[in-house]
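ok so i was messing around last nite and threw this chain in just to see what happens. nothing serious, just curious
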Amino acid sequence: MRVLLVDDEPAVATALADALVRRGVAIDHASTIEAAEAYLEASDYAAVLLDLGLPDGDGMGLLTRMRARGDTRPVLVLTARGAIDARILGLNAGADEYMVKPFDLDELHARLLAILRRRDGHVGRALQCGALSFAVETRVASVGDRVLGLSARETELLELLLRRVGKVVPKRIAEDHLFGLDGDLGSNAIEVYVHRLRKRLDEAATGARIETVRGVGYMLLATPA
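result:
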């Protein structure tokens, strides 16, 4: 999954990003509200990690504007404001979680996964397509008892497609999800990973196939019996 981290403290942002990357979460970082708005407009993030004390305004204002325009992406507020009235204000403004600094990084990761499971309706079960099963928490793809040995980016792509089975994932969204807005992206990088993943799914007889919608993007479908 790709997450937007909004925090203006370089040391804190670096530590958070490094810890989450080690746990399989891709991170884009914005240090201001203006930059965060640009990132949110350009990419389809799984969630937003939002600090409140930002140099060009209060993060609560960003959260309020997101909700006012119908942006339902999960937002985890990460802040030093620990008073109960501040927590209530944040939750009432539309935050999905409110964590007070300092916090445990494993707990942050667990809360992030829990929010995503609740949002997508996958609490207690795996993502499915055909005979393919994907465990959200462990991020392991399998067919029956056989585990598919996927690379990190193949896993990212598969999860993105599985969360939208039967729906087109635009190519730009897939690129942002795998490589980030600042990633080193070749002209055919996404096609390479789609080809690799398509081959893996076919070889493993998963009953799932990736369709290319020309000029638009990609779609995962169950192969008819």
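not much to say yet. The CA atoms of residues 5 and 49 lie 5 Å apart.
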